[in-house]
Amino acid sequence: MPEITRLVLTVSGFLLSNKKMYQTIHEQISVAGVYDHGRLKFTPKKIKWRQRLYTVDEITLTSDVKDGGVRQRFYSMVCGPNVYRVVFNRDTEAWWLEEVWCE
Amino acid sequence: MLHVDINSYFATLLQQENPYLRNRPIGVVKDIGRTCIIAASKEAKVFGIKTGSVLSEARVLCPQLITIPASFDRYLDATKRLKTIFASVSPDYYIYSLDEVFIDISQCGRLYPDPYLLAQTIQQTIKDELGEWVTCNVGISYNRLLAKMGSEMGAKGSITTITQENKDAYLATASFADVCGIGFRLAKKLKAFGVTTPYQIRFFTESELEPIVGSFWAGELLRIAYGENSHNLSLLDRQLPHMKSVGRSITGYRLYNDENEIKRVIFNLLEEVTHKVRRMGLTGRQVAIGLSGSSPRYGQFEQIKNNAPMSWHAHKTLQHYVCHTNELFDIAYYQLYKKWHRSFQVIRFAVRLGMLKPIAQTNQPLFPDWHKRAAVYSAMDSINDTYGLFTLRSGSLVNQPIIRPEVTGFLGDREYQLGYT
User: Fold this and answer.
1) Can you tell me whether residue B358 is helix, strand or coil?
2) From B300, which residue of chain A is nearest by alpha-carbon distance?
3) H-type helices in B62-142, by residue range?
4) What is the spatial distance between Cα B6 and Cα B110, in angstroms, rounded to a whole number?
5) What is the mean pLDDT of residues B109-137?
6) At a CB cut-off of 8 Å and minimum separation 6, what does A100 contact?
7) pLDDT in tens, B371-385
8) Residues of B in contact with A3 (CB under 8 A)
9) Is residue B319 scored above 70 in pLDDT?
10) B73 to A4: CB separation less than 8 angstroms, yes or no
11) Most exposed: B59, B288, B300, B301, by fewest CB within 10 Å?
12) What is the C-alpha to C-alpha distance for residues B284 and B176, in angstroms, rounded to an integer?
C-alpha cells in the first residue's frame, strides 16, 4: 500500500473512532416485552445484558433484514442515556445486542 | 403527478434511530475507514457538506461532524415499507431511487380531489411508519419533471404545487441543480453563456444551442425550458419485461497491485452478478469488465488531484448465453483481463453481464458437463437463498474477506431488490 494511502486511512480511522460511535457488542441477551395480537407486533420493554436489567424507553426504529432465508429484525431502542441496536434472529429465535451508542 | 423525496434519507434514518444525533451534523460513510461522504444530514449541509464530499475537507468545514457507517440493508427495508405506503395510494407509482418516488394519481381523481391534502396525508403516514423525525418534500404537478422540480425547490418537509399558471415563475427561479437530467457539466456550459435558469433557455433557438450542447441536448433543453418531461423521465413509462443488464462495481480501500487479490475481487463480484441473474431466471451474452486506478508512479490522491485517473474497459459479445460464474469468469478474467497488460494499480472494479434474456427463451447447450454444472449452481443457489449469499461459495473465495451485495442510492437494480426479495 502506498505510504500516503496508509496514512490517510489511519487518520480517518482515528477520527471516526475518536468521535461518538457505535460500539460493537454482539452478545446474547434476554428480552421481555409485549405481544399485541391485534397488530401482530412484539414490542420489547426490558432487556437483560450482563446480569443488568435495562428498561426500554422508546423503540426508535425497526428494520427487517433478510440474508438469504435468514430473517432478522433490528430494533433500535433508547434505554436511559444510551441507544442500543438489538437484533432478533427470527429463525433461531435468539436475541443479540449488536451495538451500543457510546459518547 | 406527485413526487415524494425523503429529506437527507440515510442521515435522517440515523437521526430517527438515535435521538442523540438529532440536530447534529452527520456524515454517512460507506464503512469505517472510507473517506467519501455518501450522505449528509441537513445540519451538515448548512456547512456546505454534501454527497461526494471528502471526509478530510468536510472536517475542515465542520470540525464537529459526526461520521457514521451506512447500513444499506436497513435503508432498503425502509424503502420497502415506503413502497407499501405508495402502493396504497395509487397502483401507478415508480420508485425512482431509494428515497424518491413518482406517484401518478391522474386515474384516481375521484379518490383524491385535493392533491395537497393527499400530500399531507402521505407525509404523516411516512412519519407514522418510519418515525417522527423522517420528513419528506412533496412536489405536485401535471408531469414528472415539474413535480420533481417542485419537491427539489421546496423547503424541508414542504409541499410545492406547480401548475400551468405558475410554472413559468418556478422555471425562472429554479437552478439547474433542481432540474432532473441536467448535470453539473451541462449547467457549467450553460452558465458560460449566462444561462442559469431553465426559463432563460427559451431565448435560444435549437440551432443556436446545438453547437454548444449537441443536437440531443438542444431539443431536450428546450423541452425542459417549457416545463415538458425530459427524455429520461419519459423513459419511465416503458414497460421493460426484465432487466437488460446486471452489473456490480466496488471502489476498494486501497490500490490493488497483487494479481491474486485482483483475481479474487473480480471472481467475487462475478459471483454476485451471476447469482442475481440466475435468481431472476435470466441469462446474458455480453460480458464487460472495467478497472480504474492509478499509475504506480503516483499515489491515488495525487492522481485524482491531477484529474487524470487511469482506466481500462473491455467487453465481449458472445454468440451464446451464459449465466454460470465459471463461464463468466473465464471470459472476463482470462479472455479480457489477462490479454491486457495492466499498467496501473487498481482501486475500482466493475463487471457486468448484459443483453439479458429469460433462460426459458434461450437454447441451452447439450453438453453433459454444462448440465452437471447447472445442477451444481442450482443446488448452490438454493442453499445460499436459504442461508445467505456466500454461505456456500467457490474455493477461490475461502480465507479472504467477502465483498457482500449492497444497494445503491439510485437503486439501479430496483426490480431485483424490490421485486425478487
Assistant:
1) strand
2) A5
3) 72-89, 115-130
4) 27
5) 91
6) A22, A23, A25, A82, A83, A84, A85
7) 898 899 899 888 888
8) 299
9) yes
10) no
11) B301
12) 38
